[in-house]
Amino acid sequence: LTCTVYQVHCCLFVSLAEQTGSLGCIGWFIVFLSSILTICLFPITIWFCLKIVQEYERAVIFRLGRITDRKAKGPGIFFIVPLTDSIVKVDLRTVSFDIPPQEILTKDSVTVSVDGVVYFRVSDPIASVANVTNADFATRLLAQTTLRNVLGTKNLSEVLSDREGIAHSMQTSLDDATDNWGIKVERVEIKDVKLPVQLQRAMAAEAEATREARAKVIAAEGEMNASRALKEASLVIAESPSALQLRYLQTLNTIAAEKNSTIIFPLPIDVMAHFMQK
C-alpha cells in the first residue's frame, strides 16, 4: 500500500510539475508539500480535488497565482490541488444587454436620444480573466462610448435612415476593441431614435408642405393633360361639323337624364352658323 501511494504521489507530482512551469524552487516545494498532504488525507481531500464544469462553462486554473495551462479546462470533471489551485469559471453563452438612451449631438448639430442592444460572448476564457477585470462591465461601458462616437459622425437623415449601417460600424469597432479581452461581439442593433418635440413638429410641417406641393404639381399636370385633350377634341370637331351636332345632342341627352324636370328648347346649329362665321 505504501508503494502504491508513493507511485501515485510521484505520478501526481510529475503531472503538476509539467503543468506548473517555472514556479521557482519555492513554488515547486509548496506544490510538493500540497500534493503529499492531499494524498495523505485522500478520503477527505477527494471532495476538494474534484471539480465539475458545465457544458457551457470553462474553468481557468491558477496555481500559486499563475495560469496552469494554455487552454481552459472543461466541460466535465477534473482534479485540482486544493491548497495551491484556485479556479475561475467563465460562461461561454451569448449575453445581451441594453445600451441606455444616449443624448448625442449629430454632425449637423441636432440633439437626439438613441438606445440599442448588444449581443456578445466570451471566445477566449483565459484572456477574459487575465486581461480585464470585468469583461462584461467593460463591454457595456465601451458600447456606450462607441455609440456616441459613431453617431457623432452622422447627419440626422443618416441616423434615421441608415440604422443597419450604423449597427454594422458599431459591431466592427466593438469587436476590434474587445478582441484583447477575449470577447466576440456578435450583433448590434439600434432600437429607437427619439427627436426633440420642436424638431418633430418642424419635420411634420416640412413633410406636410412637401405633400401639398406634390399635390399641386399633380393637379397642374392633370389640368395640362386635360387642356391638351380638349384642344385635340376641338380640332377634330372643327374638321367635322356633323360631329359638333352629335356632341350637342349627346349633351342634351345627358342634361335631360340628370335633370328631367328641366324643359329644354333645342336650337338648331344651322341657325347659329351665320353668327359663327362672322
UniProtKB/TrEMBL annotation:
Transmembrane segments: 26-50
Family recorded in the similarity comment: Belongs to the band 7/mec-2 family.
Signal sequence bounds: none
Protein localization: Membrane
Keywords: Membrane, Transmembrane, Transmembrane helix
Domain annotation Band: ranges: 48-207
Entry-linked Pfam families: Band_7
InterPro entries, alphabetized: Band-7_stomatin-like, Band_7, Band_7/SPFH_dom_sf, Band_7/stomatin-like_CS, Stomatin_HflK_fam
Domain of life assignment: Eukaryota
Organism: Mastacembelus armatus (zig-zag eel)
Entry GO terms, CC: plasma membrane
Protein name: Stomatin (EPB72)-like 3b
